[in-house]
């Protein structure tokens, strides 16, 4: 339709420059248009006195406007309007035709694969023949890299991945000495590198090469369930319950039931049936499971296929978890003997991975130690040196006033969380939080809430016999998917279980949660006030939490024999407190799953005994992989990041890789007896390379990517049915060998339509007003 009115393709107007070819100067055209308008205005005004009454107002000036427009159009035509545009010289330019040869192009739809439809469009549609009449053409298959082919028969859609941006950039670089006039890309847009990079677009724009994209494949699947992501903690402590946050979407199964599973090999770790949401909407579900013993675990997270699914390969995701066996230690400081202390320790007795060393103030100058690993541990009271406090991964402060700690110890508590990366938990009590003066301490910014200014925020439960309403707990919205508060796997049943917990023996107003804090559970007072009960927040390298009660022990005492809610809650809370506390060496990779490319960057953060950066370290990564793969890689310091080291490596084979990173302090010198340099720390991480998996996901045509690529390079997105017009559009390019062509505009059908419309409008208005 556009060419019917404007004679030339849209690209001519987008790339061309407007010009007037007449010999007379442009200022004369403007002057004549103004003169024509003024003359017509004078003529109409001079006749108004003799004109019919109906024409003596605004209607006269409407007629003047139409006549002036008519005169202006005719005058512009006299100046010979034209457009100049760069056009490829025939037979002197190369058109690169790229056909996606990856596995997703082998998907069959309505009896033909996507690749077969692409070949059919090029051959049977006559596209290649039309291009060959005016240009030289070169055929390429494209997957991870572009490769030239002699014939379309050389296409075999079995490549394990697609990297369109990288391929286009490589093609631009390899043909830098050739006159590439345009690129035609036939693909489903299923790019596995995360999209077309800015570097690839810049390389094409620098040579003014337009990319015309042709999309294949359905833009919407009819019947399919696809897992988009599964977020699982990369590390865990042996025996922990962890969460898999699964994101999925579906088409054609709205309201249907589907089973989500988590497996470790043949062992089923978790299974839950969910109801699928609306078509195309992202849906997030959380599955909780026990990770089991120590070691590297490869988890298979899956949605059991439904009947009639078009693609079942996108129903499973693989994730790797490194499960550590080193016990975590918590220092628990309690200001008075109370039931809460006893029941917290009792809940952790069966947890061999979390050990509690505690000190309870039994009188003014007397402390009872329990759970210490050495007779000298805590013998001098609360630690005053970093090397003494930093041996713990977590710290619990019970009913203890802030003044119990010296200013130096308070600063040490801050550094324990901020620098060491430990977890801090404060409990409610008669000497805790605001009633203990913590609202006036130097640690207010460390807490997840702004404590009340006034004292008297601690409330003890009245005598149950009096018939008063009790303080109860309930799950908050943020706690629905939290591993800390998950007492029952099913979310609805878990919320109901919280409401059935026995009442709390006491509570304390924790104040207002800070913007970055998460309220996982609330308490409801006898006066029906809803206050935060459990609040968590990240701070520096660590994390902090408030449990605003000292009376959760009733969850155990007043529950039936064998009820595990109390113990499970405290075990999960304390594991959360210490599970992410780092050691002296912390190793990481950007992604634990490497798809179709083994390149990986290993990063290590090394700290000394006081957890300050240790840049004077020798750091090595020992990598063990499948089929006997072994490598020892020396890691180098990262500029401007003291204590951080990196190494680039490439996994040569598919499979799981175990990496042990060790660090040695060089400035300490060798041991005088053994002659070796003492190791300052080590860490273990796992990653896995998988090839050919990414092509199973997002198999619908990515039209948005193809359109964006075409728009950003000056090309056009095409449907296969419209390819008969491609050969006529491609010549208008500034790449390759071009010539400036001038195209007349005076004979556009639109011009004659405008002239006719103006004259008709004037006639119609005069007739309507009765002056014809």
Can you tell me about this structure?
The longest helix has 22 residues, at about 25-45. The chain is elongated. Helix 3 runs antiparallel to helix 4, helix 4 (about 60-80) packs antiparallel against helix 17 and helix 7 packs parallel to helix 8. The chain starts with a helix and ends with a helix. Strand 13 (about 255-265) and strand 14 form a beta hairpin. It is α+β, with helices and mostly antiparallel strands. The mean pLDDT is about 90. The strands form 9 sheets. A 9-stranded mixed β-sheet has the order 20-19-18-21-22-30-29-28-25, sandwiched between helices. It is built from 17 helices and 40 strands. It is about 25% helix and about 35% strand.
Which key phrases capture this entry?
alpha+beta, 8-stranded mixed sheet, 9-stranded mixed sheet, 772 residues
Which structural class is indicated by helix and strand composition? alpha+beta
Parts with pLDDT < 50 across at least 5 consecutive residues: none
Give the strand order of the largest sheet, numbering strands 1, 2, ... along the chain.
20-19-18-21-22-30-29-28-25
What is the count of helical runs? 17
Radius of gyration: 37 Å
Instruction: Give the termini distance in whole angstroms.
Output: 35 Å
Helicity level, as a percent range?
10-25%
Tally of DSSP β-strands:
40
Q: In this structure, how is the largest beta sheet organized?
A: 9 strands, mixed
Give the helices and strands, then pairings.
Blueprint: H1 2-6, H2 10-15, E1 17-20, H3 26-47, H4 58-78, E2 81-88, E3 94-100, E4 108-109, E5 112-113, H5 114-123, H6 127-134, E6 136-142, E7 146-149, H7 164-174, E8 180-187, H8 198-206, E9 211-215, E10 224-232, E11 235-237, E12 241-251, E13 257-264, E14 267-275, E15 283-290, E16 295-303, E17 316-324, E18 328-334, H9 339-347, E19 354-363, E20 366-370, H10 386-389, E21 394-397, H11 407-418, E22 423-427, E23 449-450, E24 458-460, E25 472-475, H12 491-499, E26 506-508, E27 512-513, E28 518-524, E29 530-539, E30 542-547, H13 554-557, H14 565-579, E31 585-588, E32 593-595, E33 599-606, E34 617-624, E35 630-637, E36 644-650, E37 655-665, E38 679-690, H15 703-713, E39 717-718, H16 726-729, E40 738-744, H17 749-768
Parallel strand pairs: 3-6, 3-8, 8-9, 9-39, 11-17, 18-19, 18-21, 21-22, 22-30, 32-38
Antiparallel strand pairs: 1-2, 2-40, 4-5, 6-7, 10-12, 12-15, 13-14, 13-16, 16-17, 19-20, 23-27, 24-26, 25-28, 28-29, 29-30, 31-33, 33-36, 34-35, 34-37, 35-36, 37-38
Helix pairs in contact: 3-4, 4-17, 7-8, 9-14
